Amino acid sequence: MARELEVLAEGQGEYHRVDPDGFREWVRDHKQRAMVPKLMSAKEAVERFVQDGDYIVYECNYIQRGPAALIREIIRQGKKDLWVGAKFTWVDVALLVEAGCASKLDVGFFLFGPVVDRAVKEGRVKIYEYSNVVMTNRIKAGAMGLPFIPVRSFGGTDGFKYSGAKLIKDPYTGQPITIVPALNPDVALIHVHQADIYGNARVFGTGISDVESALASRKVIISTEEIVDTEEIRNNPGITAIPYYCVDAVVHLPFGAYPGEMAGRYASDVEHVVEVVGATMRGFVRQYLDKWVYSAQDHFEMLDKLVGWRKLQEMVQRATIKEGYLP
Amino acid sequence: MIQIHTAKGEKASYFNEREHQICLMARLIEDGKTYWVAGGGSPMASILLAKKLYAPNAVYVTEDGVLAPEPVLPFDPIMTMVSSRAGYRALQWGTMNSIGFHAQMGYMDYGILNTLQVDPYGNINSTLLGDYESGEFRRFGGPGGADSIASLCWRTILMTDHQKRKFVPRVDFISSPGFLDGSEGARERAGLPRGTGPYLVLTPWALFDYEDRYLRLIGISPFVTLEQVLAEMSFRPKMADQLLTLETPTEEELTLLRTEIDPRGQVTITGDIGRWIMRREDGSFGPADEVEARGGDPNLPRSW
User: Fold this and answer.
1) What is chain B's alpha carbon radius of gyration, rounded to the nearest angstrom?
2) For residue A54, which of A106, A283, B206, B244 sits 20 to 30 Å off, Cα-Cα?
3) Which of B79, B82, B176 sits opposite A157 (nearest CB)?
4) Which of B76, B141, B192 sits opposite A109 (nearest CB)?
5) pLDDT reported for residue A211
6) Do B132 and A158 count as a contact with CB atoms less than 8 A apart?
7) For the residues B187-196, what does the mean pLDDT come to?
8) What is the domain-level CATH number for residue A47?
9) What is the mean pLDDT of chain B?
10) Is B212 a member of any domain?
11) B206 conformational bin, left if phi > 0, alpha if psi -120 to 50, beta if neither
12) Comparing B282 with B78, which gets the higher pLDDT?
């Protein structure tokens, strides 16, 4: 005899549509199982795979191994109404909001500042509350093909009320348990150390949830410091973090995490990071975007015109820690 | 009973309140236990100091999946998490999911956090000041990893400043759970793991624990009075029968903190570091400006 599952409390926040079967069908119809080359420019990748209204995820941007160059390309192309998984991120939300790209945020943590504050108070941006770990747990559920995941955190918070979480009676133990909706983003932006032209990718160092994000997302854009031969991938398969068949585009972007650090390869540009944090906290994001994003056609022109070889070499020289960051 | 490591050697004669708080926290770190710490600021400085002096086998993890690192000090000037210096010589590099799941399974003994506001039940607000519903608020980033630390570690320790606006009867927004409404079993009824919750609150002026899930004052610093401590709180805490005196920093602690852990002063010079504290001629301590106004100790530096 069927019994109704008891829902003890539920949040009122809108959440990205949960549709595991729809996601499976997307995989069936769109993800290439054949090894086909996916190398393309950032411009082409963002034009083809980021649509207005998409839900996007990325992490650590402008700190370490973030997809900074891809985010700047999204801003240049003026994408609209993006829903951002704002977990473990820093200044990017303010950049995307000032540029008019983002209209919804699922918040774990980001650097707030007056630009986002104004947008929220004027109703241009809507916020839903989570935490960093709950957001990565949601992506994990999406990467497992499941509709939701139980979590032992988040219950009892005020964030719960403004989220898609529910408190239910666990049918196995009889105890209350929080469940949160799985997240299958439309787009994942991931910057990696090495990838082949098919999208088999290597990541060295820690991460937040980029492997899960690659698996959970309908469209996956990888930017990489270095393109390696598939033979090299096959010689050390244990360190392949992301398999080719979930990747839609591979973009070769040396210094793609600039101004953030790329562990083992280059240190961050401290002055630049201080500048963008200052702009975020004091509300001068428009001036920052004019100077660093709109003034260059692409990543390479920005490096040539605004950063320069000397600065890049100095960043490379400061990356003295190599242990763990080499294959 | 709270265990506090005994600091050995000569007492420092000139320090600020932030340094005092970090040294106190370091003496509270239990050896051989796991700590999930907020990725920067005072909690991180405290555990690094403790590992050097009092608890060499204490282990810490950070939100970005770093387990038991031996970091290159000082940290990167920008961030204290996710950099190659912070994650150096770890035992494992995992992910936020892996660390979160380890904590969810009970591997994390303690969490150490900062906060904007805390209430008598140990609920933590790091989201906004004001009213969420009306939109009349000043917003901050969000809970980040704090919600998970406060939910999943066995014991949560809070480091905050001793200010009336921080100790409030009711936080404006529960970002991370304490004992919620303070009733027995409230955390479990909200789906949180059994036997977890707030453990201590440490400010530069005072140390608190919880009695029946309500904040209780158990110690005060020698440069403040009980009246000052209570005046800078918007509610009255419970009181222990006997108040501990929280010992001021030693020269050894301060030297390590100032030369190895935070030589750039990112935590202990810039930002809100509280007042400078100075030793009086009679050996007692007071705010440097007051001591100096009365002549002070002529052997001490006049300025930093």
Assistant:
1) 19
2) A283
3) B176
4) B141
5) 96
6) yes
7) 98
8) 3.40.1080.10
9) 93
10) yes
11) beta
12) B282
Give CA–CA dist A229/A56, Å, rounded. 29
CA–centroid distance for B231 within its chain: 21
Give the model confidence (pLDDT) of B7-26 as tens digits.
Answer: 999 999 999 999 999 999 99
Disruptive mutation site among A109, A118, A133 for chain B (greatest number of B CBs within 10 Å):
A133
SS3 B35: strand
Cβ pair B115, B168 in contact under 8 A:
no
Tally of domains in chain A? 1
Does residue B118 form part of some domain?
A: yes
Count of domains forming chain B: 1
pLDDT in the model for residue A252: 98
Encoding tokens for residue A159?
A: 């964030």
Return the closest-CA partner of residue B93 out of A85, A213, A203: A203
All residue ranges of chain A with pLDDT < 50 are none
> The sheet that has B206-211: what strands, in order across it?
B92-93, B66-67, B59-61, B34-37, B110-113, B155-159, B198-202, B206-211, B214-220, B238-245
> Cα–Cα–Cα angle for B174, B180, B183, nearest 5°?
165
Q: Determine the Cα–Cα distance for residues B118 and B112; give it in Å rounded to an integer.
A: 14
Q: Which of B264, B298, B263, B253 is nearest to B278 (CA)?
A: B298
